[in-house]
Design brief:
Shape: globular
CATH class of the largest domain: Alpha Beta
Number of domains: 3
CATH topology of the largest domain: Rossmann fold
Structural class: alpha/beta
Number of strands: 25
CATH superfamily of the largest domain: Class I glutamine amidotransferase (GATase) domain
Strand content: 25-35%
Amino acid sequence: MRNVLYIYGGGEAFHPSEWAGRQLAAMLAADGRFTVEATRDLDALATLPGSEYAAVVLYTTGFAHELTGAREGGLFDFVRNGGGFVGIHSAADSFRGNRAYIEMLGGEFVWHPAHHEFTVNVAERDHYLTVRMPDFRIYDEMYHLQHFDAANVTLATTMWQGQAMPMAYTRAYGSGRVVYLALGHTQQSWRHPEFQKLVIRSIAYGAGAAPPARTVRCGLLGYGPAFDMGKGHGGWIDATPGMKTVAMCDANPARVEAAKAELPDLLGYFTSLDAMLAMPEVELVVNILPHNLHAPTTLQCLAAGKHVVLEKPFCLTVAEADAMIALARENGVMLSLFHNRRWDGDYLTIKDLIARGLIGEIYHIECGQMGYSQPGFWWRSDKAVSGGIMYDWGAHFLDWILNLMPEAKITQVMGNFQKRVWHAVTNEDFGQAYIRFDNGATADYITSQISASGRPKWRIQGTLGAIEHNGGDITLTSFANGVRQDSTVKVTLPGYGSVEYYRNVADHLLMGEELIVTPEQARRVIGVIEAARRSSELGASVPPCAGCA
């Protein structure tokens, strides 16, 4: 890993630059390509020439005349000779007594309105910093710049009174690269995934990274008609810059003919997985087969050296998960689960309300889906194929729960599976997983087809309030400001994040960025289901399986 120097300080009553340094360290640790060394000592600038630093990140305020002598020479020589410079927010309000610094940066702070939420528009979609990045909304302090150099390459803007204000740009400085991000004043912005991506990409770009020219070519395994998932995955892949569907495989010749009609430009149509895996153009396989076939066919794909994206659930047992993870590591290929529901609009809104501290610390979660209806006669109702009632929506809900409690460890699981009414199918009629975490918090997930009365999709209790949601608007009760406030929060974000999921896969494979849905996370969900089943059989709570806490 390459090292990055982070220099901060000045105006810390206004800018969270020290806190941002800790956030940056965590971001880079998750990314895995860079380490960071943080200092408020401006003399570190003098040590840059001849150092091993890949880039310097500056988040300072003021210091009007402090960039003198060796400090100035060290910074300018480092960048001119190929080093990267990333200026964050108030870096444009730093060293303003040194005009050479302002010229290197390519802009200077002039004014900002009050903190508010605004839209950041991507202006250049083919650049390394912004490829596959959507427009996004952010709560921040909008910096306005003067002395903006026409040589700057503007990558993102926001509108203010009819003018487009630069929010991200880059420029050459000698042999080096300068990036400036006007965002970054608030902690909310540093927690925003798109801002985090901009920061990490700015560092990588400053260190010399370039957009890869290649395309990740994908094959679809399974083209069954249920929910049109084969056609759906093909379309989501093809809508992702840097990815392309080139082949499909289904054992049913009729489904192959359907694929030829719906995806007419593929390079290969197969009824044999071995034949598709022998196709050198296929680098990644999307496994859309029924649940019981996930592990054996994925192992076959991994053994052939292919990356694999699995439709949920990951598999049926922890032992199967272990085998797939081990083989993926051995062969150096990506293994991930299509947890696109992490980008559902209601779930993202709930996470945002929690992150804002509006309900305090979570101590209990209730969630699930309950109804009274006979299941259909198909493989999803056949326990030998599906795994049971908890492997469908349960895979999503348990993943959601675990991501709402990211720091907590599971200590016990209580399961309750019952078969009472629908004996024409083999899945259970009722499934429950009750989870206890090491911080004392609990979660209760229920999926049922014999519940004549239900409960909300989400009820989340916190030390300062509660969230309730059952489709439509979210009900929020909060005591965060010392008085009870009841409000209705509209869900305005889009749902079903298929494009967002594949955007991350492309970013990971093409640019080395962090994989958001890891196989270890997918294994943990299977571990909860397996523990719940074991508990139900024993009639007692059980600890999670090894590595699933």
